[in-house]
Amino acid sequence: GPCRALKTRGNTPKYGLIFHSTFIGRAAAKNKGRISRYLANKCTIASRIDCFSEVPTSVFGDKLREQVEERLAFYETGEPPRKNLDVMKEAVVEAREVAAEVRKKQEKKEKKRKKREKRRLEALAAAAEDMENSVLETQ
């Protein structure tokens, strides 16, 4: 692995899992190592976001993917990609909106569940009362 390469001062390995990504296949030979590292960094960020976000959303993943696309385009055409800070600010805003929607839906579901539970309890109470009354009538 990479540790051996550091000890022996050899080349770092460039043929791991990420190397088989379609992103890497689309890069020119001289950019394969670069885009591999870039993709690895974006994967690391994605896993951290997954770990720390309360509401799962694909917003950040989509933005990170766009960044890899922009980086590939930059190597091919020289068109500068958007600044990471701007992309992430955009993602935070969008993710908040998505999370708010998800929470709203969850609250609606919870209200419905509570209503159902209340009706069930009322029905049980009424049935119990009927039973008590019929027992009293037969005595």
Summarize the structure.
This protein has helices at 2-8, 22-25, 32-52, 59-77, 84-138. It is mostly helical and 139 residues long.
How is the secondary structure organized here?
Layout: H1 2-8, H2 22-25, H3 32-52, H4 59-77, H5 84-138
Helix pairs in contact: 3-4, 4-5
Pfam families: Nop (PF01798)
Protein name: Nucleolar protein 5A
Keywords: Coiled coil
Walk me through the structure.
- The structure is a single chain.
- The chain has 139 residues and is mostly helical.
- It has one domain.
- It has helices at 2-8, 22-25, 32-52, 59-77, 84-138.
- The longest helix has 55 residues, at 84-138.
- It is elongated.
- The termini are far apart.
- The model has no long low-confidence stretch (mean pLDDT 89).
